[in-house]
Design brief:
Chain B: InterPro entries: AA_ABC_transptr_permease_3TM, ArtM/GltK/GlnP/TcyL/YhdX-like, MetI-like, MetI-like_sf. Chain B: This is Amino acid ABC transporter permease. Chain B: Belongs to the binding-protein-dependent transport system permease family. HisMQ subfamily. Chain B: Pfam families: BPD_transp_1. The complex is a heterodimer. Chain A has helices at about 5-15, 15-55, 60-75, 75-90, 100-125, 125-135, 140-170, 180-190, 200-230. By secondary structure, chain A is mainly alpha-helical. Chain B has one domain (about 5-220): Orthogonal Bundle (MetI-like fold), CATH 1.10.3720.10. The relative contact order of chain B is 0.15. Chains A and B meet through α4, α7, α8 and α9 of A and α3, α4, α7, α8 and α9 of B.
Chain lengths: ~240, ~230
């Protein structure tokens, strides 16, 4: 009920169909943001565990999680969405809320990429640092926490911020499994035969909304990269989608 | 409950044929988009590298716009927006190819820009001193070096972009994802179908990776012979 005056302001300023459309698009954008945050936080937590496993001296653990990252980096995001949104429900004959399906698919996708970014940052630290730690008689955990991590975090921050752009863009695919976000609302309006909501008007508006979500992050990540020093190009996935 | 029936689904030869055909369409559109996108990206990167007035700024805005919006929005704009706006309608695969070309070009252009920037200005100065025209210097000196340096990035970017091309099925292009959705709607075996698709995508990206590695060896032979 509270957003009613806001909606009226939109319709007053921009006219009947267009004001409502823009209001609904902006309102749906919040779900795009929520889903991005879920994916980023959930994916970040899993990625922490995966990264820890991948740099640990235990060989089998390392191999298992290398396979995990490889798998979820090679599988298209769209396929993960289909598997969790359509495949798993059909397989087990259960109902899965699009929130869960989209959240899980994006979280797995994010975790694989972030784990790779973070591992890249860790391996970018010269071996001499490890050796120096060993020479001082520190344990593996001590070397990691006291020497390697503080240096690696610097390298990892910029690509991590850059990757958030990719997640935000990735959420645009979730409408395919029935998630109601900016993309779903926009597509519905573009298909509606209301004057002023033609595809060539709606899609540029949607592009502008996504752009205003992503561009500040892109700029920020580039600035961080300049300030903190960039990672080598290996182990750093490039943003796409 | 959880019973998997891969065999039963794919006893249907029509489905196998659809998957095969879809994989070919996906590969063809990706390679086409990659090639045209690369050519366009070279143009963009050249304009930005030489700071051509006005055009360089337009190119920057273009690259940022494409890189910060989802492919699917670009795809829908190209497929449904442009035809209404300009009053023409190509077959959908042509719209898909255009959208992929535009999308790929922005990512490639960004890599090329960084690659060109990494070539020291001493190289250009030396070419100037030898009296080489600017364009010849770009073609013969700057570009080959930048290309060699940027090949791995372009390579992995291409693989990544290939994995995102599934969205072209949304505009009724009969690509691999479309084939999967079609089989799913007929057989009602979603898990098996999308699992198969995932495997095919992974295998295809491995194939691309191998092909690109082989291409690397051929293109940059001069780098290893010193």
């Amino acid at each position: 009920m509270e957003d009613r005056p806001v909606k009226e302001i939109f319709t007053d300023v921009l006219g009947k169909p267009f004001g409502i459309v823009l209001f609904q698009l902006l309102e749906a954008t919040q779900f795009t943001i929520y889903l991005s945050l879920i994916a980023f936080l959930g994916g970040g937590l899993i990625a922490l565990a995966v990264t820890a496993a991948r740099v640990s001296p235990l060989k089998p653990l390392n191999r298992a999680f290398a396979a995990y990252t490889w798998l979820f980096q090679s599988a298209p995001l769209l396929m993960l969405l289909f598997l969790f949104g359509l495949g798993v429900p059909r397989l087990f004959d259960i109902q899965v809320d699009p929130w869960y399906a989209a959240g899980i698919a994006l979280t797995l996708y994010t975790s694989a990429y972030l784990a790779e970014v973070w591992r890249g940052a860790l391996t970018a630290i010269p071996a001499g640092q490890h050796e120096g730690g060993k020479a001082l008689g520190l344990t593996f955990v001590q070397i990691m926490v006291l020497i390697i991590l503080p240096q690696a975090v610097r390298l990892a921050i910029a690509p991590t911020v850059g990757f958030m752009v990719q997640i935000i863009k990735g959420t645009s695919l979730a409408y395919i499994i029935g998630f109601h976000d900016l993309m779903a609302i926009g597509k519905r309006w573009a298909n509606a035969s209301v004057p002023g909501t033609q595809p060539f008007i709606i899609y540029p508006i949607m592009a502008m909304i996504y752009f205003s979500l992503c561009f500040p992050l892109s700029v920020w990540s580039r600035r961080l990269e300049k300030r903190l020093g960039s990672t080598s190009s290996k182990g750093r996935p490039t943003a796409a989608a | 409950m959880a019973d998997l029936r891969f065999f039963e689904i794919y006893r249907n030869h029509e489905y196998l044929w659809l998957l095969f055909n879809g994989a070919l369409v996906s590969a063809a559109l990706t390679v086409g988009g990659g090639l045209f996108g690369f050519l366009f990206a070279v143009l963009i990167a050249a304009v930005r590298h030489h700071r051509v007035p006005v055009l360089a700024h337009v190119a920057t805005v273009y690259v940022e716009l494409i890189r910060n919006t989802p492919l699917i929005v670009q795809m829908f704009f190209v497929a449904f927006g442009l035809p209404l706006l300009l009053g023409y309608q190509w077959p959908f695969w042509a719209h898909a190819l255009l959208a992929l070309t535009l999308n790929f070009s922005a990512y490639f252009a960004e890599i090329l820009r960084a690659g060109l920037a990494s070539i020291g200005s001493g190289q250009t100065e030396a070419a100037d001193a030898l009296g080489l025209p600017r364009w010849l210097c770009f073609l013969k000196i700057t570009f080959p070096q930048a290309a060699a340096a940027m090949y791995p990035s372009l390579n992995s970017q291409f693989i990544f972009l290939f994995l995102t091309t599934g969205v072209i099925s949304e505009i009724s292009v009969t690509d691999l994802t479309w084939a999967g959705l079609f089989i799913d709607s007929r057989s009602f075996r979603s898990f098996e179908v999308f699992f198969t698709l995932t495997v095919i995508y992974v295998l295809m990206s491995l194939t691309f990776k191998t092909a690109l590695a082989m291409l690397h060896d051929r293109l940059f032979k001069w780098r290893t012979v010193r």
